[in-house]
Amino acid sequence: MLFAGEFQGTLLQGVAAAVLLMPNGRRYTVSQLVSVNHKDEAEYTALIIGLKKANQLRLKTLAIKGDSDRVFNQVNGLTPVTEERLKKLYRVAIKSIRTFEKNFLRMDIPRTKPPGVISR
């Protein structure tokens, strides 16, 4: 699963998206417009909607990839979640991740565009 969130600060809106790539080549895409105050909220929402879709598909193993340092570090327990606005999203993400028999969370999707630039 690949996930990403973007945020438009002046509008307090963002988009959260995830793509699940199945072994048979099939792809499932989920996306959602979100009202958020920070990019990290959009990133967490992207992770969560992707995890929900993976659960709906009854997947047992999931490789999770994204480009958010903060989400990666917090979900892997490397840094604490100190912002109140992220604590609930963090708890939802952790609860969802734990439903899989195996999961792998890596941050190895390099940005090819500056943050905030969305491809058309």
Description:
The chain is an alpha+beta fold. The protein has a single domain, classed as Ribonuclease H-like superfamily/Ribonuclease H (Nucleotidyltransferase, domain 5, 2-Layer Sandwich), CATH 3.30.420.
CATH-level-4 superfamily name? Ribonuclease H-like superfamily/Ribonuclease H
Overall average residue pLDDT: 86
Q: Which percent bin holds the helix content?
A: 25-40%
Rg over CA atoms:
14 Å
Which word captures the global form? globular
CATH architecture classification: 2-Layer Sandwich
The number of helical elements comes to: 3
How many strand segments?
5
CATH topology description: Nucleotidyltransferase, domain 5
Tally of domains: 1
Series of secondary-structure elements, N-terminal to C-terminal: EEEHEHHE
How far apart the termini lie comes to: 21 Å
Biggest sheet record: 3 strands, antiparallel
Uncertain regions: pLDDT < 50 for 5+ in a row?
Answer: 114-120
Task: Give, in spatial order, the strands making up the sheet with the most strands.
Answer: 1-2-3
Share in β-strands: 25-35%
Helix/sheet category: alpha+beta
Q: Indicate the CATH class.
A: Alpha Beta
Name some characteristics of this structure.
120 residues; Nucleotidyltransferase, domain 5; two-stranded parallel sheet; 32% helix; RNaseH_sf; alpha+beta; 3-stranded antiparallel β-sheet
Reconstruct the topology from this structure.
Layout: E1 2-8, E2 13-21, E3 27-35, H1 39-56, E4 61-65, H2 69-75, H3 84-97, E5 102-106
Parallel strand pairs: 4-5
Antiparallel strand pairs: 1-2, 2-3
Helix pairs in contact: 1-3
